């Protein structure tokens, strides 16, 4: 690559009105190379730099509708759009520029081909059913063969979860489900280090899904996360770009470190100007293709999606390798302007090689306060969290610019309860409030039913959520349509009466032949069938065919009265009945946590979680969530009815919360791309952050993302027992960095 002669480059045409870009940002803004790759430190302003580059292109005369900004999350796309609106002071212009998440963009392109839209599966558990179907198809085919192959098919959830993770990684790396010419399954197994059976199932799952191939008469019937990117990339390769892609004059990609081979393939075709002649542009054929300009910005230390195929090696060795070297320039945003020099020292210590070299520099002169608080247990940690927030607010801090960043969703139970008790408003991103998680909603539904008080679950929308959760935990099969439509809207108007009917008439009643048949129908369809049967019987009676009418009636009565339930269904029903009886038979002042412990044990919820959730990590999180919910009741030290009413008050407070003066509780992934005046990181202990069984490199990057969201004040909450303190906190060398910076050392010498 040739160095850029900035003196020969034109001066910038867009000058923001409210701030002065840094020298590095100006260099990128005025750079006229066709491909600009900007690698940056956290807080160096890469999103702002992309927005500056976008506005520079607008000032150069590019049509805003011909500018595309791609990100790897919808939240990041919104951040870029808001930044463009802020810099330009023109919301209409910002809306004209296409800012969109990569997979959403690919969905739009695929939908533009005129295919029937594919269903979007949002969880691994939804994909699980199709993996089981594919395995059943393979087993049936092999059973019918004279010499069946010995294929190890996934049966248990852990095996299916492992398959789904590996399949997602193969798609990210653009591995076709079909074998190449002269390739065997054994060849693939050796090449990718996976068993041969994986590739048999991979091919069959994609066949069940509908391969998404351009030449396939069966387009994809469903897609899970990132499948749209995989499908579009494969179509582009198969057709060599002979499909119509939207055309742009300038393309930007934020969070470039999350790029993988599949998304890169789509990007290459977006940046390939020769496709204009394919689309029949006469001007392109006469004058030659019009070049598409590109900027990508990212931070290698923020790679936390290895499961999606992103890795440093690909970015360094493959990304942009085919672009003309004279057209490519790699620039840096080396200084952070988010936090001060002390934080920069700590981040360098965390991400460095053990030497004293500064990996990150700060362009800010004022300090970032760093506080370390110690706790005896997680309950005490939540209390210290609130104390720190109240103190921060008293000192003039803004809660609406404050974030509590959590490693795992189950941790929000103690945090949300502590915030409510302190009268602090909060909002949730990257996870659901614990009050809305299936395991908690199921317990709240049982509590409300047993206490005969549905008012403890406020909000009409809760009715279907509680029913869905109870159906899940009872492993009760119902058509999705039964949770939609007019029936539940009417039911929500009188939830007490209808919820009683649902428990007594559905979950606690032995299932009959009729129940099993109509469970696959919507309520409207069931009502139509019942009306049609009644009208048929009446018509037969009127025509004198009483024998046929009586036969229809007997058959209907037989289906309605004949029990047909599996042993597991019966066991689940009796466990639910016993749980309700346990609560109703308890003394009114019986401790809530004791009753809830007994209900969780009676329903066998922790063991059942391992059956219900494909991903073992999700099953563990649900188990931790159940423990946290019980501990929450124990801390309240009250009766079950008092606890149910207290939960109602928390629920109402969360629903009424407004963004103004409302702090954020979020996951690390949701915090990515954002910054806050104050950040608090609780529960920083070994086995929690880093999480057990997680990739250590990605966990360190995840911690890096969390600590680098802060601008002015960072609070780290660690256990009193030094042996339990997270190794990442120790790597920060907090005390030494503070002393070297000449600031007050608020930490013990143990944190050297």
UniProtKB/TrEMBL annotation:
The family note in this entry says: Belongs to the helicase family. UvrD subfamily.
Q: What class of enzyme is it?
A: isomerase
Keyword annotations from UniProtKB, A to Z: ATP-binding, DNA-binding, Helicase, Hydrolase, Isomerase, Nucleotide-binding
Which organism is the protein's source? Thauera humireducens
Q: What is its EC number?
A: 5.6.2.4
Q: What biological process terms from GO does the record include? A: recombinational repair
Q: Which Gene3D superfamilies match?
A: 1.10.10.160, P-loop containing nucleotide triphosphate hydrolases (3.40.50.300), PCRA, domain 4 (1.10.486.10)
Q: Residues in domain UvrD-like helicase ATP-binding?
A: 19-340
**Binding residues annotated for ATP, in chain numbering:** 40-47
Kindly list any coiled-coil regions of this protein. Answer: none
Q: List every stretch annotated Disordered.
A: 551-570
Record-level Gene Ontology MF annotations: 3'-5' DNA helicase activity; ATP binding; ATP hydrolysis activity; DNA binding
What is this protein's record name? DNA 3'-5' helicase
What's the catalysed reaction? Answer: ATP + H2O = ADP + phosphate + H(+); Couples ATP hydrolysis with the unwinding of duplex DNA by translocating in the 3'-5' direction
């Amino acid at each position: 690559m040739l160095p850029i002669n900035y003196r020969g480059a034109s001066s910038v045409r867009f000058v923001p009105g409210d701030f002065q870009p840094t020298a590095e940002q100006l260099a990128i803004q005025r750079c006229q190379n066709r491909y600009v790759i900007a690698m940056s430190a956290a807080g160096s302003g890469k999103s702002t730099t992309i927005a500056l580059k976008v506005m520079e292109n607008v000032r150069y005369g590019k049509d805003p509708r011909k500018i595309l900004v791609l990100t790897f999350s919808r939240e990041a796309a919104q951040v870029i759009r808001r930044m463009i609106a802020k810099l330009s002071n023109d919301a209409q212009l910002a809306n004209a520029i296409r800012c969109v998440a990569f997979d959403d963009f690919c969905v739009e392109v695929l939908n533009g081909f005129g295919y029937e839209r594919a269903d979007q599966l949002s969880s691994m558990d939804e994909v699980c059913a199709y993996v089981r179907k594919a395995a059943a198809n393979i087993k049936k085919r092999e059973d019918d063969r004279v010499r069946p192959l010995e294929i190890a098919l996934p049966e248990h959830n852990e095996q299916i979860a492992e398959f789904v993770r590996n399949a997602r990684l193969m798609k990210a790396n653009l591995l076709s489900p079909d074998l190449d010419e002269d390739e065997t399954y054994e060849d693939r197994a050796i090449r990718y280090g996976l068993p041969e059976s994986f590739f048999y199932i991979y091919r069959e799952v994609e066949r069940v899904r509908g391969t998404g191939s351009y030449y396939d008469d069966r387009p994809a019937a469903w897609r899970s996360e990132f499948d749209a990117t995989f499908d579009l990339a494969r179509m582009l390769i198969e057709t060599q770009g002979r499909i119509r892609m939207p055309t742009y004059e300038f393309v930007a990609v934020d969070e470039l470190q999350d790029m993988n081979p599949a998304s890169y393939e789509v990007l290459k075709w977006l940046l390939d100007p020769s496709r204009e002649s394919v689309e029949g542009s006469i001007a392109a054929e006469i004058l030659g293709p019009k070049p598409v300009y590109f900027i990508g910005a990212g931070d290698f230390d923020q790679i936390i999606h290895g499961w999606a195929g992103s890795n440093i090696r690909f970015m360094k060795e493959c990304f942009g390798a085919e672009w003309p070297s004279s057209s490519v320039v790699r620039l840096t945003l080396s200084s952070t302007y988010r936090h001060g020099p002390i934080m920069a020292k700590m981040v360098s210590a965390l991400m460095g090689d053990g030497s004293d070299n500064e990996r990150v520099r700060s362009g800010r002169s004022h300090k970032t306060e760093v506080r370390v608080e110690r706790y005896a247990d997680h309950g005490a940690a939540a209390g210290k969290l609130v104390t720190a927030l109240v103190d921060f607010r008293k000192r003039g801090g803004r809660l609406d610019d404050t974030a509590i960043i959590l490693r795992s969703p189950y941790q929000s139970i103690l945090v949300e309860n502590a915030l409510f008790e302190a009268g602090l408003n909060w909002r949730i991103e990257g996870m659901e409030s614990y009050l809305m998680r299936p395991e908690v909603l199921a317990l709240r539904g049982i509590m409300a039913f047993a206490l005969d008080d549905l008012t403890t679950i406020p909000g009409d929308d809760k009715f279907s959520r509680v029913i869905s959760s109870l159906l899940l935990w009872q492993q009760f099969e119902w058509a999705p349509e039964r949770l939609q439509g007019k029936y539940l809207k009417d039911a929500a108007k009188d939830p007490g009466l209808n919820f009683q009917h649902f428990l007594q008439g559905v979950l606690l009643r032995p299932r009959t032949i009729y129940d099993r048949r109509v469970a696959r129908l919507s309520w409207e369809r069931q009502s139509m069938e019942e009306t049609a049967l009644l009208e048929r019987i009446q018509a037969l009676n009127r025509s004198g065919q009483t024998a046929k009418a009586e036969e229809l009636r007997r058959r209907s009565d037989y289906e309605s009265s004949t029990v047909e339930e599996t042993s597991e269904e019966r066991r689940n029903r009796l466990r639910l009945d016993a749980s309700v009886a346990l609560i109703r038979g308890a003394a009114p002042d019986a401790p809530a946590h004791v009753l809830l412990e007994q209900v969780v044990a009676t329903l066998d919820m922790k063991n059942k979680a391992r059956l219900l959730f494909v991903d073992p990590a999700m099953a563990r999180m649900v188990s931790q969530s159940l423990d946290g919910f019980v501990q929450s009741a124990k801390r309240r030290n009250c009766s079950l009815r008092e606890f149910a009413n207290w939960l109602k008050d928390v629920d109402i407070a969360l629903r009424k919360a407004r963004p103004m003066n409302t702090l954020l509780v979020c996951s690390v992934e949701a915090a990515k791309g954002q910054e806050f005046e104050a950040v608090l990181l609780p529960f920083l202990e070994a086995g929690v952050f880093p999480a057990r069984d997680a990739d250590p490199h990605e966990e360190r990057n995840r911690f890096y993302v969390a600590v680098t969201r802060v601008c002015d004040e960072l609070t780290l909450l660690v256990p009193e027992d030094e042996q339990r303190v997270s190794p990442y906190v120790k790597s920060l060398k907090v005390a030494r960095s503070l002393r070297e910076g000449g600031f007050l050392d608020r930490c013990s010498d143990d944190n050297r």
